[in-house]
Structure formats: C-alpha cells, structure tokens
Amino acid sequence: MTKCIIINGDSRKELAQFNNSIDLIVTSPPYADARKKHYDSIHPKDFADWFLTFHESFRDALKPTGSLVINIKDKVVDRVRHRFVWKTIEKLSEQGWHCIDDYIWYKTNPMPGYWPTRLRDGWEYCFHLAKTKKPYINQDAVRVPMGDWAESRLKNLSHNDKKRNNSANESGFGRDLSRWVGKKNVLPSNVLSIALVGKNKGHPAVFPVELPAFFIKLLSPPNGFIADPFGGSGSTGIAALSLNRSCVLIDTHKKYCQLAFERIIKEARLHDAEILFENVAVIEPGKRKKRQLEDTPSLLDFVSA
Ligand SMILES: C[S@@+](CC[C@H](N)C(=O)[O-])C[C@H]1O[C@@H](n2cnc3c(N)ncnc32)[C@H](O)[C@@H]1O
User: Is 99 helix (H, G, I), strand (E, B) or coil?
Assistant: First the structure.
C-alpha cells in the first residue's frame, strides 16, 4: 500500500526515524539568500557549510544503494555568478559522497527579462550523488523512442559503421552503429527539457512534478520509498504517489506542509484514492506522541506496514 507522510519539522532531526530505509532523496534546498521574504535563507558564502549540516542525516536515511538528487542553481552576487553550489558538491564528495552524474534541467520557458552582462537563465543543475559507486538504477524506466536519427543514420551503414570504429574526427570515441538497427528505444540524455511551473501554487519555489518524477523512475525501485527533506509544496510527493511509491516530505513551515497535503489530494494520480485519506498525515512535533501511541509504534512501521 502506498503511503505518504508529511512532517512539519527540521529534516536534520526528523529523518533519523527513517534510518536505512529510503531509496531516493530528491529535493531542492532553499536557494542562498534568494527567498528572504518567504523563508529562512543562508548567505551564499555560508551555504556549503550549512548544507553539510544535513549530509549525515541524508546518508543515514538512505539504503546502501540509495541516491541523493539535489536540484540547485548558483546565485548571481554583485553581477558575478557565485560558486557556492560547486563548493557544496566538492564538500559533499570530501565527506564520501560519490558524484555519479550532473544533470541539467533545461527550462523550455525561462522567465523573460534584461540583464546587462548576461542572458536569460534557462537551466538548473540536478546533481546525482550516491553512497556507493553503483547505486540502484533502472534505465529501462526512462528510455525514449530513438526518433528520426535512426531513420536517416542507420539506413545505409558503411563498412566502418559495422565494427567498433574510431570516430571520424579522431576524438577517441567510437561506436558500432549496426548494434542499433531495429532498436526502438534509447537512453535519454542527461539534459531534461521540462517547462517551469506556470501557475501560482502558493509556494515561491515550486519545481515541476516531472523533475522528481524522472529521477524517481530512474533511481528507485517500483514500490520504493522516496524522501524530500525540503518538501515545500509537495511536488515530490505528487510524483512519488503517482508513480506508486511511498514518500516522506519534511518542511519547517507548517503552512507549506498544509499546502503539500492539499496539493497531493488534488494533483496526485492515485492508484487507490481511498488510500490517500487514510495515510497522508501532517504530523506536528508536539502532537506526534499522541498519534504514535494511538496509531503506530513508529513512523517507519507506518510506512512498511
Ligand atoms: C526550494 S523550497 C522546496 C520547494 C519544493 N521543491 C516544491 O516543489 O514546492 C525549500 C523548502 O525547504 C524548507 N526548509 C528550509 N530549511 C529546512 C529544514 N531544515 N528542514 C526542512 N525543511 C526546510 C523551506 O521551508 C522551503 O519550503
């Protein structure tokens, strides 16, 4: 049975009860300084150290084969792109995280505007980190149709195309193209083309549901358990439940937990609609004891029941 838990609290503390049970953490942390009006923010120069205060709870919550995907973008400070994101990833790798790949979220509809020394900002990073060099991955779940390229390129293969051959420009990369004849699907690239969320969802930094959905399909098993430790308006929860995965969303702001709850009820494609009302719970730290005594011995039992 798919379940969703929404916790109003600090993820550094709250994740402790999910030790070694999460398949995938997919999240976007508060951007440095950018959202001062809405929630606590961190100065770019302090960001890497601040993010490091979360890494142990993330690491301990993940299963050994689990993955951490961080959607983030450097901020421009005084006309110059600040490198706090690179520093953060460097520090995480010094702590033992493996940087498996860097994905780019290409925004198909970036915000219009004018900036004197740069252009419209049309992309963000999604860093894939893991506890081991061989995390769980299901590439078949995200394959895409081969497309027109196959029609033209594979129609008349030359002699060189039929054996593993160095590329014509001597780049050192070679491919035996005959292996692709008759294949219908290929791996997508690590550039994800996804539109920004157009509608106001009641939170200042909502990412599109398609973003966590892609990583959930790729990096978690069917019926897996997903966490978003900066849960916001619940986009990751909508993606997880719609893909038949259980999830835990944590946010320090109660109003965002409430918003996530409402969005999930409205937007998640539920495989069994009745399940949602029984198992989506907004849990406030003060009320938790009562709920646990009445309902379940621990939240982890709640998920694995
Ligand atoms: C960039 S937003 C996430 C938005 C989310 N991806 C969505 O689509 O709505 C970051 C969120 O992290 C929350 N947050 C900040 N510090 C936190 C902490 N220590 N523990 C849990 N949540 C935190 C903020 O309240 C904010 O809602």
Answer: strand
